[in-house]
Structure prediction request, 408 residues.
Amino acid sequence: MQRQKLFVNAARLKETIEAFAEYGKTAAGGVTRLALSEEDVLARGYFRSCCEELGMTVAVDDLGCMYATLEGVRKAPPIVIGSHLDSVKKGGRFDGVLGVIAGLEVVRTLVDAGIKPELPITVMNFTNEEGARFEPSMMASGVLSGKFDLDDIMAKQDADGLTFREALADSGCAGSPDNRIREASAYLELHIEQGPVLEKEGLSIGVVECVVGMACYEIEVTGESDHAGTTPMDMRKDAFFAANDLVSLLRSRLSGLDPELVYTMGRVNVYPSIHTVIPNKVVFTVEARHKNEDIIRQVEEILRSLPAEQEGCAVKATKLWGRDTVWFKPELCERLEEAARSFGYSYKRMASGAGHDAQFVASFLPSVMLFVPSVNGKSHCEEELTSYEDCEKGVNVLLETVLGLLAE
Prediction:
C-alpha cells in the first residue's frame, strides 16, 4: 500500500529560520556568527534545546561538531542530515544554517506523524565550515575525513591570536573524539545555491552531482624600478604593463576552453606601489574551477606554458594548490530527483562551484547535496535571500528522500 505523502510545516520552518537569524543579527538584516563566538554558542544552545524537546540525544566531538540523534527501531548506521551554524562576517540568514534546520524539521515532521524511523536519524552541525574565524574553511569535516591534521588545526589562530584549541575550551564546545561520525547509511546536505543559475532558469531544486575541481596558481612578473618621469617608455621593464598583457592573454586562452569553466584573478599585488616609481614586480593569482578534470588539466597547461619573458620582465608560474572533482553517490542523486518529481517540483542536475562539508564527508560516507535558489545569486552578504517557499520545497524533497531510505 502506498504511504501517505508527508509535508513539512511551512510556518514552523519559517519561524525556525527567523529564530536562528536572531543569533548574530546585523543591523542590515544579515548575520555575523563566527565559529565558537558568543553568537555561535547561543545558536548551538538553541539547536540543542530544539533537539532535546524532540527526545533526541545530543553528542559533541573533540572538534565541537554536534550530533543530535533520533533513535531508530534498529541499531544501524544513521541517516545523517547536516551543515553548519557559523557564518562569515555580515553574511546571510540561510547559508549553512538552512541545512541544519532542514534536518531538524525532518525529525519534527516524523515525530508529528508518530513515525519511529527504522534507522536512527542524526542532525549534524559542523564546526567552522566557513573558515571566517579560523582558516581553513571546512576545518572540522577536513579533520574527520583525514584531509587535515588534528594538531595543525588545533593550533590555527584567529585575528586576535587565540588558537582553535583555546576557543573550543573557552566556549565549552569541546567534546570527545569517541563521538566523531564514522559511519552512516547516507549523508544529506541541503544548501542555498549561492549562485544565480536556479533562479535564472526558473527552477526550484538543484540536485548536486559533484563539487567541482580547482587549480590555483600564482603568477610572478619581475621587472625593474626606475623613475616614472625620466625613463623613456621604450627603455622600461614595467612589471605591471607586462602583467596586464599576461592577463589579457590568459583571458583569451581560458575563455576558449569551455563555457562552464569559471576563472578568477582575485589577488593582485603591485610593488613598490608608489605613483612615481615604475613597478618592478607584480604578483597575481589565477584560480579556475570545472567539474571535468581534463578541462582543469588544460587550464594548468596554459598557465605552465606562459612565456618566460614578457616586455623584458621575467615570468614565473607557481601552483599554490588544487583539488579533484568530488562526485556524490549516483543512487542518492537519483533519489533526490525522484523526490522532486513526486512533488512536481522543477529541478536540474548541477555542479557546486563552492566548497561544502559534503565534499569531504563524501570520501568516507555515501553523500549527496541539494540546492535551493538564491535570489539574484547573492550569498556571503547581508542581501542573501532564499524565499521561504523554496526553503519549504527543499526540505520537502529532503524529507521524501529520507522516507524512501527508511522504507528500504
Observations:
- The chain has two domains: 10-211+325-406, 213-323.
